[in-house]
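HUMAN: I'm a chemist; might I ask for a sequence paired with its structure tokens?

ASSISTANT:
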Amino acid sequence: MRELEEETGYLVEIVDEIMTKKRKYSENYMFIEVHYFLVKLIGGKRKIQDPDNLIYDIAWKTIDEINTKDLSFPEDREIFNRLLKKRI
């Protein structure tokens, strides 16, 4: 919740923990762990506050729009599709 507020300006509350993704990138010896949550927007306003310049935009997207976006982690596309279709 703190990370979302810091980087996007939105205030949220966690509704459900969806999954955790762990991956090791052997080419640069990097290990990532990403936690996915279903959240409810409860306040704040859109504001990119990203010192690492990893956030390009903050926007609500449809499933079709997500499927045409270049993603930093392309393997997440299937995860997004599955989760969004499940929640509709």
